[in-house]
Write a structure and sequence with these properties.
The protein is mainly α. The protein is built from 3 helices and no strands.
């Protein structure tokens, strides 16, 4: 439980340091990745970082797809 709390705090600190324009999908991905990483051999921080990267990538991909359709 302590690791999940640490990951959540770290996620919000890092999200606060980043600009809001670059945080699309990052927070949601970091939370999901942190929980998944914690469940997989207590690698919550690694999961949060990977989740942030994947979440940001997916959000950018969706924005680009919506811009091309219009």
């Amino acid at each position: 439980m302590k690791s999940i709390l640490t990951c959540a705090v770290l996620t919000f600190v890092l999200a606060g340091a980043m600009g809001t324009a670059e945080a699309k999908g990052c927070i949601k991905g970091a939370v999901v990745g942190g929980v998944a990483g914690h469940m997989a051999n207590h690698h919550g921080v690694v999961g949060a970082v990977a989740g942030c990267a994947i979440g940001h990538h997916e959000a950018s991909k969706n924005v680009n797809m919506n811009n091309h359709q219009q």
